């Protein structure tokens, strides 16, 4: 199962951060819509909900990236659709590459994740043991 990031989101909101959640537009695209307290939420697929289509789209400067597994090089296995890799590439193409932090449990670390040229390396992973930083290899 995935890490519950709601406590982290609440803490960031208390510090004044603007929050956004992914919204699936089609089979290849996600955007990030502002999460406003009390605003309507809609089903997004994959058992998730997100802000309604009228919510403002944001380009996040910090992105918590979900993953199924990761290795000590910062490579990750996502959930198979490539949404995050494409969204991160799109932000980088706009000159707005976000700081990327993977969110995982320690037990999700594996010896090596198979990687491809289009895969985005996650330089930091936050687990219950703390924040780990990886250097490019």
Any overview of this molecule?
The protein is α+β, with helices and mostly antiparallel strands and 137 residues long. The chain has two helices and eleven strands; from the N terminus they run H-E-E-E-E-E-E-E-E-H-E-E-E. The strands form four sheets. A four-stranded mixed β-sheet has the order 6-9-10-11, with no helix packed on it. The mean pLDDT is 90.
Estimated share of beta-strand residues: 25-35%
Please work out how many helical segments DSSP would assign: 2
Task: Give the distance, in angstroms, between the N- and C-terminal Cα atoms.
Answer: 29 Å
Tally of individual domains? 1
Broad shape: globular
Query: What is the CATH topology classification name?
Result: Rossmann fold
Query: What is the CATH architecture term?
Result: 3-Layer(aba) Sandwich
* Helix content class: 10-25%
What structural class should be given to the helix and strand makeup?
Answer: alpha+beta
CATH structural class:
Alpha Beta
Order of helices and strands: HEEEEEEEEHEEE
Uncertain runs are none
Largest sheet: 4 strands, mixed
Please provide the count of β strands.
11
Q: Identify the strand order in the major beta sheet.
A: 6-9-10-11
């Amino acid at each position: 199962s995935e890490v519950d990031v709601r406590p982290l989101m609440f803490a960031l909101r208390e510090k004044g951060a603007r929050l956004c959640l992914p919204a699936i537009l089609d089979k290849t695209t996600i955007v990030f819509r502002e999460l406003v307290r009390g605003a309507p939420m809609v089903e997004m697929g994959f058992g998730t909900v997100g802000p309604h289509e009228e919510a403002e789209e944001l380009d996040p400067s910090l992105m918590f990236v979900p993953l199924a597994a990761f290795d000590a090089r910062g490579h990750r296995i996502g959930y198979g659709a490539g949404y995050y890799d494409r969204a991160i590439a799109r932000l980088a193409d706009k000159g707005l590459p976000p700081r990327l932090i993977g969110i995982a449990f320690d037990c999700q670390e594996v010896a090596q994740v198979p990687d491809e040229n289009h895969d985005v390396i996650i330089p930091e992973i936050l687990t219950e043991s703390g924040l780990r930083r990886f250097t490019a290899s």
